[in-house]
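Supplementary notes for students who missed Thursday's class. We covered one full example, reproduced here. Read the sequence, then the structure, then the short commentary at the end.
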Amino acid sequence: MEYWKLIVLFSSCFVGGMSIFFFQKENTQRIKLLLSFSGAYLFAITVLHLIPEVYEAHDHNIGLFILGGFLFQIILEQFSDGIEHGHVHSATHGHHHFPYGIMVSLCLHAFLEGMPLTQGHQNELLFGIALHHIPAAFALASVLMQNKVSKNMIVTMIVLFSLMSPLGYLLSNGISNGSIGDINAYFDRIMAVVIGIFLHISTTILFESSVDHHFNKRKLIAVLSGTAIALAGFFLH
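Structure (token representation):
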């Protein structure tokens, strides 16, 4: 067990959420560039590493679980309003309430994202997930603030959200080592579901980073940089 990975997963998400109290929400350009970079990096890591590894089990039904993960993420976003992509939606018609659907779907999403970190190429994927969680946590904190949630409750919810990926990593580590239950044989299928989620998240970020299917220069550089770093890790591994 490498505990420093748990610290990275928690701290990146926590810092992203807490930054809502120190930075102007209107200045979203840097967040969009970070999203473009992390989306490209996460997509490249999924294609270069995760998909080939999950198919090594020679399970002919593995594609069904990848597709299932992709569709499952679409369902989750009906409750989260796309906060996984760094989207911030204002409260409508002056009505304020605690966004339970957003909180539950985001926590489930983050929990599943932590699970592949017990497989190969963990460091590359860890970096991608940590980057991805910074704008997601910022967006969550922004939604909570817009819905007039107290500051103490916002901090509590960000801590809870920050714990989800580390918990997913711990559960996955227990499954892969056979110390939790006896479902190690299904581990590749679990990873396939997560891959489907990653594919949806990363491609949605990349598609939504363009206007009329055109990237501006900064976003293009961010996307190419994320892809280049993933390729460097692939060829140097």
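Commentary. Residues 42 and 68 are 19 Å apart (CA to CA). Residues 33-88+96-236 form one domain. If anything here is unclear, bring it to office hours.
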